[in-house]
Give the backbone structure.
Amino acid sequence: MLQTAKKTIQIEIKRQDPEINNGESYNQIYDVEVEDWFTVLDALIKIREEIDGTLSLRCACRASICGSCAMRVNGQAKLVCKTKLSVVEKNNKILVEPVGNMPVISDLVADFKPFWDKFNAVEPYLKPEGEVPEGEYLAPNDDMVHLVGVMNCIMCGACVSDCTVLEVKDNFLGPAALAKSYRFIADPRDGSQFERLQNLEKDGGIWDCTRCMQCVEVCPKDVDPMERIMSLRSKSIENKIDKNYGARHAKSFTDLIKNNGILNEVLLILRTKGLFNIIELAKLLPIAISAQLAGKRPPFFSHSSKNKNQIKKIFKKLEDK
Amino acid sequence: MKFAFFPGCVSRGACPELYTSTVKISGILGIELDEKALESASCTGAGVLQEKNQLLGDTLNARNIALAEKQNLPILTICSTCQGVMSQAEYRLENEEYRAQINETLADEGLEYTGKTPTRHILWIIVEEIGEKKFKSLVKRQLDGLRLAPFYGCYLVRPSKALKFYEKPERETCLEDLTEWVGATVVDFPGKTACCGFPIVTINEKASLKMVGNHTSTAKDLGADAMVTPCPLCHLNLDQYQDRAAGMMKRKIDLPIIHVPQLVGLALGLDPEELKINKHVISTKKLLTEISLKP
């Protein structure tokens, strides 16, 4: 018979029940005997079945297909069915919490309503234009192969859980919904690219992302939501949907590097806000004064690269690619 | 150890104290900085340029690295963002076809990117190259009693694949390790690897301020005397916008944000003024009193 190594792991679980402890969360520690091949989910199921039947958790396929078991393990969102205990335990201990940025229903079960609402807000279905073809809508193979990367999303909510913008801004559409939006905007059969991009320009859309890469790091399916958001920004600017601070910042930044090689921070702010945008610039004045007093105001005439021409040449060659 | 020094735009702009303190500590640490090697280099693109055009961004970074390679020098960076963007470019350039495509452009200037000597942040160099034993032997001023909250900056923690955490697991805790080596106590808090909010400060100030307020107030409430960061962009947001964030939260925070080279400099026995530690918006006076140094 196959011999496996057993050991005891201390699993700390953040628990919450509307009827216990006035609905406040509390941590409970379980000592669980585990096999060396256990996933975090195996251990959680063992707790529920053998130690404490009151523990709530959600899972279905146990094979990283269904996307129901995203939780935070040691502070980071993971599909617990895909996460081996031996990889995440430190000194025989782990901490398991429900996903972040969503309300908790009970223990490790979160309410995904905000997740689905945002998903629905991007109209996650094809909206073709023109006459309906007799057969199927045809699309080039390469385009669809490219989209497979986004279609791999299993809607587990790991990216939404750890999104640093959602922690401070409820109305941000978030990485999952924006990646899904990209899936249709980049689909050659879709006819409402411009309208979709216009909607994403608004507050809560693509320009709220900080590029912190949490979603890239935690996505169990390598969907790379942040890269999709960056592609949406690029498409938005290409479509001249660029009368917003985000697009102006990106464009000014690029122009400054193109012409000077390195960044001029003062010009970047002035061009992003607009030279005659007195109200916005006035709001920045106290920050500029405090920086000046501390000797930290960036120079108006910044350094530049010693070989600006070569940099310009590279821009000319590649900027439209 | 000789390096091609890549100071980044910010240490020559809004954070001159970072440049000064880096130069001051390098000599003592046995790090020779070649400040001329990268005079014709460009900005890394800071992830912003890459939003629009990844190939262009990667080409510029490959060019910067190739300039250093031509002089047989590895690059030393002092900014999490510069480092992260370069590491990401290096990671993509491992693909031979992509590297050949980019080298075709670089050939015009007689350059070639090989990627043989990966770019490193000074914090990594201290932890990986100098190491605990040698570093501790150089410490002249134990910063006992000082409680410091680490703040990495996104680009020095993610994506972990491009930053090679699997090969160099010490990178995951390098800031806490260094803090302990100087004798200070680490104030651990969940925000240490989160976003400081800098990238959206001109786009969505309110959300950015909430991030600043959350991180600095949490660290402060956990008893931190200061926050230490290897990223000048994080420093700018957490320092310059902290009072405004505190105002929004209707409380006081007053948490000094110091650069890694300033912390190292203090431990190496340098004078706080030499490290320009007084050149911050949030006063460092109380912090310096804490370690019995006149502000």
About this structure: Chain B touches chain A through 58 residues (CB under 8 Å). The CA atoms of residues 148 and 236 of chain B lie 18 Å apart. The mean pLDDT of chain B is 96.
